[in-house]
Amino acid sequence: MNFIFLKNFSLFVLTLISLKEVRAQDNMSLVMEKTIKEVVQEGYWASVRIWGYDTVKRVQNSAQFSGVVVTKEGHILTVAHGIQPGKTYKVRFPDGREVIGMSLGKMDFIDNGVVYDLGMIKINGGGNWPVAQMGWSYSLQKNVPGVGISYQTYLNRLYPSLRFGRVVEELNQNGFIHSTCVMEPGDSGGPMFDNLGRVVGIHSQCGVYVDENFEIPVDVYRKYWTALNIPKLYKTYPEITDDIGTDTLASALVSIDALEKPGFSLGELEERLSSSAIELTGNKKGVQVKSTGTLVSMDSKNLVIGKSSELGDQIKVVFKGKSYPATVIGRDNDLDLVYLQVKKKIGEGLGKEDFFNSSDTFKLKDLGTFLISPLPGGRKVSVLSSTKFSLPKFFSSGYFGASAQMSGGKVTINMVHPKSPADSVKLMVGDLIVGVNGLPVNQLQDFGRELFKYDPGDSINVECVRSDSAFVTTIKLTRIPNARHTAELFPGGKSDRRDGFNRIFTHDADIRPDECGGPVFDSAGNLQGVNIGRFSRTTTVVLTPQAVWESLQKHIKGL
After folding, report:
1. What is the DSSP letter of 303?
2. Among residues 207, 206, 177, which one has the least CA distance to residue 192?
3. Where is the PDZ domain (predicted)?
4. What is the rounded CA–CA span in Å between residue 497 and residue 336?
């Protein structure tokens, strides 16, 4: 066991003993933040991205999923629903190394309601692999902190994201650890670490609500370790079992009831941070809507930053129970920001200096930093899930509803989705696409690049050839339909505009679309950005302060 964990947790226990002090929760939060970061340093490099791989054709042949390396020999714990025994897989480490692995055993059955979803892969050949230490799940208790590190399909990044939570139930009726470490497709197979930095669970499935996340207990992998090393599908219990051993560090795990309602006492920063997030109302296609904004002081006036696509027009600012008319003085369609002017100064809000008090670049050591999103009616606490990156426009683009491939040197439709825009104008498999809005389409990249320029509701003219007859059809694009998965059903849902941003980072706050537009701070009160979109069940996207300020300068004269 890494000494720093024991050192941190000795301090952690001492901190808990001192909870009588007014600011003890803040001290506990700082110690917890430090511990999360240490867990990340230990577990991050062993958390791997996996996908099926055809070694002959050298192509991916399955959806991606997650896993964690737990032995120097290259054993990877993952889920049964990600693998088939005896198949080859590409394994990518966060440091960029890619290796080939072979799937071994999988247990894939249900017995009296208990779900077995265990899988194992072993890296081919030797190597100096990062290894995560296996813990014991039997020693978990309710409210023991947990850290999840895994790879979401929707983000499609080569680096894992961090999620922080707690144990809700050590072992539920389905044989899972119930945790609040949020997960979604692609996270399956990824590890949940305890606060000693040990793997105690493997992500398996989620429920409708964001606090419903279910992990396979690591003790089950220990019990069937020998059986899982055999490339075989088990539809019932293996005859061979192993002793799971004893957790000699069980007493170092600490149950923290405060994690059920995490928060910070911000002291002298309380008023400033709370007043920086204000309520906005608007009219969106005839419907009254509410959203969140960030209040900024500019000499004797206030500016308000909001999420443009959430507000429409006829916007008003609501501050301390009073409503004030607001004038739109700028919109940044690239960043989905709207800038509002309030005639009367209604509060102090943030100053120009706040936009430059933090670094524009997070490093790996910063993952796990606690973040606070003030809201008009309270606040939400999260952790930094990623470093800074760019999120290309995809899910926010208009939906065409047909896929294409190169055939005979031509861009050829190979699938038309039922009830899609392409289907509505009777496009067919085999039709050639030769142009979009007057621009020639010679390669698949031309087609994709042109489509991604357009938003839902836009109409495009598509030039086609069918049986040597040319024709042009007008297609009105719609929104990309959600996948049929439980992860799509969480309350509040996703933002309509949730990608197509540069200089962003992500965190795991449960921010609703109508709560975007508000500021994000660290626990020291430094502005870290503006919430700009609920991307998915696990992820909210934040624009960096410098990106927002540069947009302000570009769209508002005189700053």
Report:
1. E
2. 177
3. 388-444
4. 8
Cα dihedral sign, 392-397-403-409: negative
CB atoms within 10 A of CB 525: 17
- Number of other CB atoms surrounding residue 133 within 10 Å: 16
Q: How confident is the model at residue 376 (pLDDT cuts 50, 70, 90)?
A: very high
* DSSP-derived secondary structure letter, 244: -
Mean pLDDT computed over every residue of the chain: 92
How far apart CA 285 and CA 288 sit, in angstroms, is 8
Closest CA to 74 of 56, 89, 58: 89
**Helices 3-17 and 24-43, packing angle to 10 deg:** 160
Question: What's the whole-model pTM score?
Answer: 0.91
Query: Closest Cα partner for 337 from 523, 145, 532, 172?
Result: 532
**Residue 497: C-alpha distances to residues 20, 47, 340, 394, 501 (Å):** 45, 30, 20, 10, 10
Q: Give the DSSP per-residue string, 336-396.
A: TEEEEEESS-----B-GGGGGSS-S---GGGTT-EEEEEETTEEEEEEB----EEE-SSTT
What's the rounded Cα separation, in Å, for the pair 231 and 481? 38
- Nearest Cα neighbor of 121 from 96, 147, 90, 159 is 90
Q: Does the domain spanning 398-479 belong to CATH 1.10.268.10?
A: no
Query: Are residues 499 and 288 in contact, defined by beta-carbon separation less than 8 angstroms?
Result: no
| Amino acid found at 447 | F
CA distances from 266 to 250, 260, 383, 517 (A): 33, 19, 17, 21
Does 2.70.70.10 match the CATH number of domain 35-260? no
Strands 233-234 and 98-111, bridge-based pairing: parallel
User: Under CATH, what is the fold of the domain 271-391+490-555?
Assistant: Thrombin, subunit H (2.40.10)
Strand arrangement of the beta sheet that strand 277-284 belongs to? 322-325, 313-319, 277-284, 287-298, 301-307, 337-342, 327-332
Identify which of 133, 167, 353 has the alpha carbon closest to the alpha carbon of residue 259. 167
Tokens of 511: 């921010």
| Contact (CB, 8 A) for 50 and 94 | no
Residue 196's SS3 state is coil
In SS3 terms, 409-450 reads as CEEEEEEECCCCHHHHCCCCCCCEEEEECCEECCCHHHHHHH
Contact 537, 334 (CB under 8 A): no
pLDDT in tens, 218-269: 999 999 999 999 999 999 999 999 999 999 999 999 999 989 887 666 666 6
User: Do 340 and 315 form a contact (C-beta atoms < 8 A)?
Assistant: yes
Rg, C-alpha atoms of the chain: 25
In contact, 1 and 332? CB cutoff 8 Å:
no
How many whole angstroms separate alpha carbon 331 and alpha carbon 311?
Answer: 12
CA distance 496 to 493: 9
Q: Which residues, including other chains, have CB under 8 Å from residue 35's CB and lie 6 or more apart? A: 5, 8, 9, 12, 145, 195
Q: Cα dihedral sign for 463, 467, 469, 475?
A: negative
**pLDDT tens track for 473-501:** 999 999 999 888 999 999 999 999 999 99
